[in-house]
Amino acid sequence: xxxxxxxxxxxxxxxxxxxxxxxxxxxxxxxxxxxxxxxxxxxxxxxxxxxxxxxxxxxxxxxxxxxxxxxxxxxxxxxxxxxxxxxxxxxxxxxxxxxxxxxxxxxxxxxxxxxxxxxxxx
Length: 122
Description:
Blueprint: E1 3-7, E2 10-13, E3 18-25, E4 28-39, E5 46-51, E6 57-59, E7 67-72, E8 77-82, E9 91-101, E10 109-112, E11 116-121
Parallel strand pairs: 2-11
Antiparallel strand pairs: 1-3, 3-8, 4-5, 4-9, 5-6, 7-8, 9-10, 9-11
């Protein structure tokens, strides 16, 4: 009943910017920590950035200083502002969230979005 929907992916040139969004919907009681992961071709999925409900953030060394994660708790939405994009950033980006549903608010469950493709050309 809970779903994460992503948008904002696309094809851009190196040095340009892109903004991803992730909207959570359904029978939501509370959303705890949210995060963005990415998976390049033939690679393991890795954490790009995470953000707690209170706004504390954490970034992978490879994106620190270039990417900014944020969230709007009132609209159950998370964002990833990506600046100075590099070819190495090319990957499928996934939204992740720890959510307590209205049906079972005492049992947090980890949800994943469908993924959105980000391609950076040089």
